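Why this split exists: single-chain examples teach little about how molecules sit against one another. For that reason, every record in the complexes split bundles all components of an assembly together and asks for one structure covering all of them. Below is a record exactly as it appears in the raw files.
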Amino acid sequence: MLRRTIPMLILASAGLLLIVAKFSPFTVSWQETVLGWFNILAAVAFVLGAGNLLAVNLEQISSRRPGWAYAAITLFAFAVTLVVGMFKVGAVPNGMHPDIHLAGAHDVPQAPFGWIYDYMLVPLTSTMFAMLAFYVASAAFRAFRAKNIEAILLLGTAFIILLSQTAAGMFLTGWIPEDSVFSFLRLDVMKRGITEHVQTAGMRAITIGIALGVAATSLRLIFGIDKSYLSKT
Amino acid sequence: MTTKNTEQTPDGMRGFFVRLGRLDRRWIFLAMGLSIAVPILLKLRFPEVPGPMARATFDSIESLPDGSRVLLSFDFDPASKAELQPMANALVHHCASKGHKIVFMALWPLGKQMADQAIKEVLLEYHGDKYEYGTDYVQLGFKAGNEGVIKVLTTNVAEAYPTDASGAAASGLPLIADVRDLGSFDLVSTVSAGYPGAKEWVQYGRESMKPEARLTSGSTGVQASQLFPYYPAQLNGLLVAVKGAAEYETLVTEKYPVDRNSERLEQGRIRMGPQLVAHLLMIALIVLGNIAMIASRGTQGGAR
Amino acid sequence: MLRIRRVPAMLAALLALVATAPLAALPPDPVDVSAVDRPGDGGAAVFVRWRVPAPDETARAIVERSRTVAEATREGAAETPWILVAEVDPLLGQGDGYLVTGIPNSKGDRHASDEIVFRVAFIGTDGERTPAVEAAPVVARANAFLLDKIPLAIVCVVVSASVLAWILLSRAGWSVKIRRIAALEAIDEAVGRATEMGRSVLFVPGIQDMNDIQTVAGVTILGRVAKTAAEYDAKLEVPTARSIVMTAARETVQSAHFAAGRPETYDESSIRYITDEQFGYVAYVAGRMVREKPAACFYMGAFYAESLVLAENGNAIGAIQVAGTAEASQLPFFVAACDYTLIGEEFYAASAYLSGERDQLGSIKGQDLGKLFAAGAIIVGAILATLASLSPSGPMAGASTAFRAFFGG
């Protein structure tokens, strides 16, 4: 009973308290305080995650399951980065405290940790993000089919936005004077109209729905109507 | 690399388009790779005509009296660097050209490194003779807490940042020693890739700024749709994706040209070449896909 | 010709005119200068009021304040005991008064300032400044309730009341019909397909931590998916990007296995922490998808740029994909690449929908009432704004302004 009752009580009291706290200047900062507590918890939980990472990858290496080489690379990278970062290996001495090694700067390009950041993390994350361009192209080829009226409207909008985001937009319709009756045919004008009115309206509608969904979900959790997050064992 | 198809495929042109509809995605990846690489290698550049939002961003900074105090928040990481670093660099160059006093900060863990890059490549490169650390610019670094940091900044900057990024006491830095809260800044600008970012600055920071202070943002294209409702009421300027960066760079470098390493302030415009070719490729792919769909109507194996 | 007797009188008049000319250009001093704490705020704001006896002669009003205790100790403070607050239109001081914000709090009290004295001086049309008139000292104090949050409080009460009311009504037996949500109906189909093909089910609960309500909603759906997977004896994999999410997911999946009567099939190692780094996480998941080729992929939670990478990879391996997120900017990617997508509020309604309990279904109805309220407010506001634009000085303009001000516009 305690495993279910105490979490419910904590959730209900904290939830209601923080809602009411929003309306008084004396209590409005409680939300940041609670967020700070959560950040501390998350930082401690990070140790748990690191332990799990080690356990899972070591087990994969020891059992030589397919893909165990990836586990070995993961552990090697984890260990090197942890040691180099935590002990500030090769850190550039701090001008104000040159004798204190741990006061040095390790996140500069001259230090190994900074080198790992500049020559490994940055290229790898940039590469992953850049892959989106390829996936967008394959998704566009596969999924953007004019099967019905809505899809045709979507395609037309896509063409307008794609062209207006490049020099092609100015080339195709930039010659139409901005103050003429036909200025609405300029691609940049159409893009502005679509993004500032059509897209904004749709986005606001979805956002309102999401906000109401958040409110309803939170109320279900606070009042204990939804108990799915609690352990049933 | 086309997939084998055992269903009936018509002959001739129709058959060609039906087979095209089943094109292996790797050909598409190759085409996209070439459409980005070739313009970069050929250094294709196109003239940029700044739009109203880029102009509004430019005017927000340009109209401030020289030497105003500005806060630049670098809320992105290396993944979005290609899209956002160009506008960040242009922002720093613009502010420095006006002699504004700049306070750098970051809400993302790796945002500090992005700010360091802008300081090194732009601020010190082009304005190093006029900018002294502590008096003209300060790097506060990253602070954990997401929007909680912004909320603390609205009332007490010293509580959020008692020291700068290198550990020096904030009270010893003349630029921020008397800064109380966000109301002390004439401009706050965030370059943001997601959460926490521009939306949080609008929701939590705008109210505490002076009514006449400006809030501008640069964001990725994907996130921009969430920010359009805030422009121009809460956001005085908004730069959207690489296009916005290129337009803003055009305005800044026209007014404040540099005499060396100019490509550091042209990255947005450099990226517009591949963007044009890639967008044209996407349009061509969509058209081809639809032709394939029409061509395959009535056959057993339809286009996927 | 002038009579000699009139010359002294004329000279005297001329002298008087010359002597009084400079005084005639100076406007009258400010009158009824007062400063009052702004009510219903968090402190740091004061209304400064004054009257302008001669508006035609007064060009600007200068508002200054005394230094706080802390400010008075700074270097050079003794020479400038008054701080310029603003130089404004003199008529702004009438009515409610000119609002001064940013007043520093007292060192000893975070919610009140020191005693501050405000003073107002006028600048005439010739640029001459009148003596300043001081108001009585005022303390900018925080009040118990923030008045500008009243509209938020009203909306909170309305939405909460409608949700709670419908929960009670549904308990009382009122009919609660929720439309069919295809994505949720497809969970059984997807897991069944994975079982038939002898392949695993992949569940990605987003990349944010448990303090994000989307992650809570995602983990709730995980419980349902895990229960179905346990019943069908399908292998479930849950890579997480946060340690706390891993812990919560393990609890949820274990409970699901117990609920399905299959506690022995629970495998803790299938729920593992990968990395907090966004693209490091998606690189792992994408690689895992390409190697293991799960037959069903669920993406339920908060996603950002990695959404398309996941969805396209899932498409490439031929998996059936069901996605749900409240990140509006990622919805188009999921809609384009996934078989089923829960859009925004459908995602939040999922846990209630899947439970089938009357209470929870009632809360979805209450949420819909809130949407009606929002739609009604939008329609009323749009009509008022349209009428106001047609008649800018008419009564509708005032109504439109008041309506917008109520909602914080």
